């Protein structure tokens, strides 16, 4: 093969398709990518260090800001970690509301994934459709907590407040609308020839590589590995719901795209069941104002976030503040395969690869 | 895999690694406390013989205020068997060096770079040990306990 002088092209950090501040240095040989060097840390806010100087309660808003596109999921992971450490029982009603909020967050994040992938590949119309649908979930979040994106609604032992009256009918109407919504995505985007040409057989990740590189979440399942923490290690009350785990076959960008749309449908089913079974009662357990887990206690708790396995490793030294908090951020680890899946492709494929891996940089850089 | 199998596994590990391996449990996990020199051998056995193919989390804790060591923690899972185990090892604070497990689990690549960046622990035989979150010319390791937060 003809080889020319290698040159470097910088993509980002300030570029809309890098999803928040990611710098990829593409090493090119003509049109072909020889290597991709990922530079990160542009959104590093040192949340792990901040955690060591805040009380357990004070850290909740920081946890919400890790993954700001699905803010209930990182919050859920954090409050469950602390609850696990202190053996706090959560009331039934709160457990159900947690499932509802978590799955709505997952849907919001996946809708934004579909939309941002579309606009990264030049399909502006797809983006506007997705933003329109996501807006309805933002309205639901606003009803509960007054906040649209970063709702620090969860507390240790439950929630700050109960659901407002108008929430349940609005949630039902959103769920009823999901089949129509995904039909639109299938027709408008998945069936589109240009989109298929940009995604199919691009960025192929084998199941073996995915496991070796610690890839989790929809990216792992797109490679055909059936591993969903909601099934494998049910946290909260996920074992009470029936849903399928959508899998891909080839592990290319198109599979990553389709797996997420199918997950929207499954999340809808979970919310439907949760709304039907939602019991009356308390929404918050009695929790002491000052939390002091025992000295030397440690917990690693992981949940299935919209991006993958979100884990919190927490160590207590008996004080009011965590001695150490480590966040296992799925976006951070999923980005590790970007050079691997980009090699041998063309420059424009990097944009599709970043979009299909669905990183959120607030979580990757922490 | 049943509970019985993991008992057998722990027994076999104890026989193979000898006295240096300390096994203990808490409410959620089984811990394998090993000497830093045995880490790589133990990792290979866990991956190849017992199928722990998912290194979920690799991190370090600075215990300088307590026993004057860094503790490095590896949370391992087996995806096909749905099992979990934790490896822990301690290295001295004034000589923070340990073998990289990149050759066993490639996912250790960035996770070890992160620990190197924020804790200042050197991983021997890591293919590309450079800072990942902080700027390249940054001095210091922010997650160490002796790092003072300015303006507070």
Task: Write structural notes for this entry.
The complex is a heterodimer of chains A (366) and B (152). Chain A is α+β, with helices and mostly antiparallel strands and 366 residues long. Chain A has one domain (7-365): Cytochrome-c3 Hydrogenase, chain B (Orthogonal Bundle). Chain A has 15 helices and eight strands. In chain A, strands 1-2-3 form a three-stranded antiparallel β-sheet. A three-stranded antiparallel β-sheet of chain A has the order 6-7-8. In chain A, strands 4-5 form a two-stranded antiparallel sheet. In chain A, a hairpin with a 4-residue loop joins strand 6 and strand 7. By secondary structure, chain B is an alpha/beta fold. Chain B has a domain at 3-97: Beta Polymerase, domain 2 (2-Layer Sandwich). Helices cover 24% and strands 30% of the residues of chain B. Chain B is built from three helices and seven strands. Chain B has helices at residues 3-17, 39-48, 108-119; strands at 22-25, 30-34, 54-63, 69-78, 83-92, 97-99, 122-124. In chain B, the strands form two sheets. In chain B, strands 1-2-5-4-3 form a five-stranded mixed β-sheet, covered by helices on one side. Chain B has a two-stranded parallel sheet with strand order 6-7. In chain B, strand 6, helix 3 and strand 7 (122-124) form a beta-alpha-beta unit. The longest helix of chain B is centred in the first third of the chain and has 15 residues, at 3-17. In chain B, 34% of the residues are buried. The mean pLDDT of chain B is 86. The A-B interface holds A 40-41, 44, 46, 48-49, 53, 84, 211-214, 225, 227, 232-233, 298-300, 302, 309, 311, 313, 315, 317, 323-324, 326, 328, 332-333, 335-336, 365-366 and B 26, 28-29, 53-57, 59, 61-62, 66, 73, 75, 79, 82, 86, 105-107, 109-111, 114, 118, 131-135, 142-143, 147, 149, 152.
């Amino acid at each position: 093969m003809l080889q020319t002088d290698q040159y470097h092209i910088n993509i980002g950090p300030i570029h809309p398709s890098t999803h928040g501040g990611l710098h990829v240095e593409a090493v090119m040989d003509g049109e072909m990518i020889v290597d991709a060097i990922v530079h990160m840390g542009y959104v590093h806010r040192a949340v792990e260090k901040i955690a060591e100087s805040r009380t357990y309660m004070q850290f909740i808003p920081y946890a919400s800001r890790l993954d700001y596109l699905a803010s209930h999921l990182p919050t859920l992971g954090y409050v469950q970690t602390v609850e696990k450490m202190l053996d706090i029982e959560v009331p039934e009603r709160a457990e159900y509301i947690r499932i509802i909020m978590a799955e709505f967050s997952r849907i919001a994040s996946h809708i934004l994934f579909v939309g941002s992938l579309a606009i990264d590949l030049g399909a502006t119309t797809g983006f506007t459709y997705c933003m329109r649908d996501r807006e309805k979930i933002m309205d639901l979040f606003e009803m509960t907590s007054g906040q649209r994106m970063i709702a620090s609604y969860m507390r240790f032992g439950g929630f700050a407040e109960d659901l407002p009256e108008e929430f349940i009918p609005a949630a039902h109407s959103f769920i009823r609308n999901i089949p129509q919504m995904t039909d639109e995505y299938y027709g408008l985007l998945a069936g589109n020839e240009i989109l298929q040409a940009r995604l199919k057989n691009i960025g192929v990740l084998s199941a073996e590589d995915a496991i070796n590189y610690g890839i989790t979440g929809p990216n792992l399942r797109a490679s055909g590995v059936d591993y969903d923490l909601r099934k494998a290690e049910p946290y909260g009350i996920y074992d009470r719901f029936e849903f399928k785990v959508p899998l891909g076959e080839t592990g290319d960008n198109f599979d990553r795209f389709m797996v997420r749309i199918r997950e929207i449908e499954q999340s809808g089913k979970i919310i439907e069941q949760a709304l039907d079974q939602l019991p009356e009662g308390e929404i918050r357990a009695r929790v002491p104002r000052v939390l002091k887990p025992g000295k030397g206690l440690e917990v690693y708790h992981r949940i299935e976030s919209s991006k993958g396995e979100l884990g919190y490793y927490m160590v207590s030294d008996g004080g009011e503040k965590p001695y150490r908090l480590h966040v296992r951020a799925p976006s951070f680890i999923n980005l590790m395969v970007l050079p691997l899946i980009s090699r041998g492709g063309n420059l424009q494929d990097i944009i599709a690869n970043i979009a299909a891996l669905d990183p959120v940089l607030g979580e990757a850089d922490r | 895999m049943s509970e019985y199998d993991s008992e057998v596994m722990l027994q076999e590990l104890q026989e193979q690694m000898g006295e240096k391996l300390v096994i203990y449990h808490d409410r959620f996990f089984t811990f394998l406390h090993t000497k830093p020199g045995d880490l790589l051998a133990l990792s290979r056995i866990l991956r190849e013989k017992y199928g722990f193919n998912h290194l979920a989390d690799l991190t370090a804790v600075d215990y300088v205020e307590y026993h004057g060591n860094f503790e490095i923690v590896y949370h391992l899972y087996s995806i096909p068997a749905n099992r979990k185990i934790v490896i822990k090892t301690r290295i001295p604070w004034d000589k923070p060096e340990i073998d990289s497990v990149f050759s066993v689990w490639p996912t250790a690549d960035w996770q070890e770079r992160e620990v190197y960046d924020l804790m200042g622990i050197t991983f021997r035989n890591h293919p590309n040990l450079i800072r990942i979150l902080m700027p390249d010319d940054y001095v210091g390791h922010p997650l160490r306990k002796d790092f003072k937060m300015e303006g507070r």
